[in-house]
Amino acid sequence: MKPSIIHLYPEQFNEKEKVLVESAPFRVCTFKYPSGVLAVRLQSDLGELVMLPFQGQQIWKASMLGRDLTMQTIFDQPYPTREFLSTFGGFMLHCGATAIGSPGPLDHHAVHGELPNAPYETAQIILGQDENGAYLGLTGTYRHQMNFNYNYIAQPTVKLYAGSSILHISMDITNQRATPLPFMYMSHINFRPVDNARLHYSAPCDPAHIKVRASVPGHMLVKPGYREFIERLRTHPEEHLVLKPELNFDPEVVFYLYYLADEAGWTYALHQHPDGSSDLVQQRLDQLNHGVCWISRMPDQQAIGLEPATAEVDGFTLEKEKGNLRLLEQNQVFHCDIKTGVLTAPETEKVLSKIEKLILHQNK
Length: 364
Description:
Blueprint: E1 4-7, E2 18-23, E3 26-32, E4 38-43, E5 47-51, E6 59-64, E7 67-68, E8 92-97, E9 122-130, E10 133-146, E11 150-161, E12 166-175, E13 181-191, E14 198-201, E15 210-212, H1 226-235, E16 253-257, E17 269-272, E18 278-283, E19 290-298, E20 301-309, H2 316-322, E21 326-328, E22 333-343, H3 345-363
């Protein structure tokens, strides 16, 4: 069934928020931040997203079941810049597609590539129904062109479903050049951490399946004791599973996760709150074969990132050396699907049971 499509244009946005469309249980409003960045507010019966349709199509704010999911950041609004670190604080950012991560000494790419704040040529609100139910979403197109190098089209889609606290994210990237496209992708999903919350992964908690990144990006300064903490996590990754306030996630700690998938191909990562509910991220290993966990607990920045990816985040050169660089042939399409949102306490227990069975089966 084809969705209803509402095309978005910059002239539809101004400082005063206004309703664009309303179709129960959905509502769409448009507005402009004081910085000039254009935004749409997508509302369902269980949640709300604030998205930037013409700047990366990122989810700037997300709330589900009355809970603000978004990381704490120094930025009170998004800013009109392509620089990742000059406006970083959204709930979800697309990263890539020619590189992800922090550039190494031999790299020249921007932090996390060109997608996070890419200027989109088109943006559309979509309303429809699929196998998961009635939905409201946002999609659009960004074309990345550089003579003698790149010519690809990115088309992400985010859907909110009626009666669901789980949103669906997808990305399609099509190489339009006659030569192969060197390619990486990551969905940078950033929850707000809660003291004494517990992390659960569909991966055994050992150094073979949960590896801490030992290197520190050049733009970061570290406090005394940080490197010792990292060294301890290399052999005892279980020490990060409970988010105790005193742990030294300052400025950040990054883990690489080697997931197990269920019979349908989905992995599970949970940030379980003390009340038993949880924040969820799922990815398909046949599409996104790497997992990244990013934790930062500073006075003015609080984040727990659970990030599906095609590579790790050590920059183009090192990821290529690791064998994590993909090549898209002419007209080849990369597609991925991600699920994220909130689970109630009973729903969380069901997922934890699945994780336990996956790990037990692995250990047999």
